[in-house]
Amino acid sequence: MKKYLSAVCLIILIALIAFTLNHKPNHKTLLLNVAYDVIRDFYQDYNPWFLQQTGLQDQLSLSQSHGGASKQAIAVASGLPADVVTLTQSSDIDLLVHKGLVAADWQQQYPNNASPFGSVMVLLVKKGNPKHIQDWADLARPDVKVILPNPKTSANGRFAYLALLAYAQRHFADAPQQQQFLQQVLANVPILEAGARGATISFTQRQMGDVLIAPENEAMLASKALGDSFDVVYPSITLYTPVFVAEVVKNTQHNHTALYAQQYLQTLWSPAAQQLAAKHYFRPVDQQVAKQYQASFPAIEQLDANQTFGSWQQINAEHFADNGLFDRLYIAAQAEKTR
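Predicted structure:
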């Protein structure tokens, strides 16, 4: 328990330091958006655009805190003074509901269950795809090293694991075979990074692994930024990864930022913001914008995590709780490697 509390305190301290460094003292109202790792590039463009569009440059200062989604949610629950949150798993925001920080009806406060856009899990490989990786099955081959975020700390890590499980359930008849497939993939994982951006850095900059499991927006950004080095592979099936937003009501009431927070979030559904999201390779929910950018988003069979595996409470209890299926498979995979 002491180790857990120390870890939480460290998360809050790091986030507060980042928050402090990201703005200069002034008389503007401060609005803090605590968000998951790989949406930072979108908000780096959205924030100045929002201030310019609303004319709030002289009144409002926008700051960001980024990290693994679940770690971010725990930090807010433990005292990080977020005005709004942007996370990829509804249960992380539900944690804040249980703490009395977010309204219970947060998904009814904005369109599309408070999800302005989303992504899908894809594979990023070296240029020319030298290992000929085409689908999830290739990740179980002994000659392939796989990079993904840690499902214990990263929502995108959980989506990566569940995408593998969805493939296994479709192609293997029973649970032991499915688990054997997952264990084979996990045996090929040399490192589990805390967040999706850390996993991307390990793959693209530290040259670790042969394939990265990543959300489409992150994989496409890496591919475009380093176009001579990487290609994106779309597997046969994948999971849709929604982006959720919510106002942290307890904090906005205390900070007198509620109206700013609501305007900041509501504007995400505007056509211009939807176009900006599409330019950052998020799949927009606005149908006209989606049609406009249709060529940017290949058709792929997308599964919904909750429709496929049950509620997040069920998923977390079965797979990601201490000594859950992920822990057991990962420990077995590491033990197998040492033999």
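Summary: The chain has 16 helices and eleven strands.
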